[in-house]
Structure formats: C-alpha cells, structure tokens
Design goal:
With 251 residues, the protein is α/β, with parallel strands linked by helices. It has one domain: Rossmann fold (3-Layer(aba) Sandwich). It is 43% helix and 17% strand. It contains 9 helices and 7 strands. A 7-stranded parallel β-sheet has the order 3-2-1-4-5-6-7, sandwiched between helices. α1 packs across α8 and α4 packs parallel to α5. The longest helix has 26 residues.
Length: 251
Amino acid sequence: MKYFIITGASKGLGEGLALELLREDHHLLCISRSESEQLRKLAAAKNVSLDFFLYDLANTQGIPALVEDIFKKIDSTQTEGIYLVNNAGLVSPVDRAENCPPEEAEKHLRVNLIAPMLLTSSFIKHVRDWHTEKRVLHISSGAAQNPYYGWSCYCTGKAGLDMFGQCVSEEQKEEKYPVKTMSVAPGIIDTGMQTTIRGSSERAFIHRDKFVSLKETGQLVPPAVAGKKLAGILLSENFKDGAITDIRDSY
C-alpha cells in the first residue's frame, strides 16, 4: 500500500492531484477545511481508501496531534511508500507591505510556511525508522524566486518553504533511511486563488491585468492537468531530493 497525505485536497490543485492518485493499492489521507464529494464518489467507485481530516491549518498548535490521528490510519508493516504533499496555501493579503493587516499577514505565514514545516517535522518523526520510500513534495511558486509588488507575504512564504525543504534534505543525508524532499512550482493553475488575484485592485497588485488576461485568453492550466504532472513527479524514479524546480521547465 502507498499512503498519500495531501493538504488542501478538497479543491483546486490539491483535488486535481488527489483525483490522479485514486488508484488501486493507494490510500489517500486528505487534510482540508471541507470534503470533496467528487473525490468521495470516485474513491468509492474505484474501491480506493480515502479519509478526510477536516482541519484549518492556521491552527498550527494542533498539527502534531493531527498527524498522530492520521498515522493511526497507516499500517507501517504494509507500507510500500509514504508521501506528504504540502499544497494548501493562501494568497491574501494582496497589498503593499505597509497595508497588510497584521492578523492577515500572520495567518498567511502560519498556513503557507509554519503549517508545512510542522507537518513535515511530524512526518519525519513518525517514519524515521521505516525502511520504505518516503517523500515530501512542497508546492512552490515562481514567486519564491521573483519579487512581486503586492505579494510580500506570498513571495516570502514560498521562498521560506523552498529553503526549509533544502535544509531538511541536508539533514536527512545522514539518516539510514532518509526522507526525500522536493519543491515544485506548478505553473499558473485555474483555481480559486486566481479568482482572488483577479478580484484585487490594481493599486494593491499592479500585475492584476496580466492575470485577468491569462484567464480571458485561456492560458490558465486546469487543476487536473497540473495534478497529473505532479503525481508523475511524486512517484518518479527521478524525484530530485533537495531540488527546487518549475514544472513548466522540467516536465
């Protein structure tokens, strides 16, 4: 059995990835604030094990207990591979740094950076002695490498997540059964996050018109298409430990 822990799996890119992973001998453990009926129905039709853990990742203090509950569903003696995908994220607040409300900026970094750090840390503790394939995939962004006016929170969180992954990769090299990590920017996906971006004012986000144009000209990637590519990377023999890459350049 291969186990997949996926955050933000009820919609958008997370749901697209989960749909691709609904296969025989896979068990999906999905963390989100709501369930996906589509996933539920397809999992039942394909006889694939699926569990939803309804949780708001802004509540970072409860993450270790959440991971404990998730691992109660996992049989370590029957595990061919175990995978964590840190996909859930926010784009708000979108504005100049001095205009971002402190509570929104703090929540953003809890969801986009602290939560995946704590999930990864707890994941490593649980699987440290498991002699099986162990991988963590961080969903990154081109914003981790390039500063954007109005995206100080988003760029900072994604850059931090990339660096965290590289640090974990370095630490795991001394382990007998290491956990491999990789950060992948999935391109510009047609999700609710894009709706939020297009709804921002040009004064807060001067690149707004570019994203409106991408939608109007059909250049946004459907979540199912990006999910298929991400699943391919996650399960590939060429999963590049410690790497930071863009799906559009490499796959």
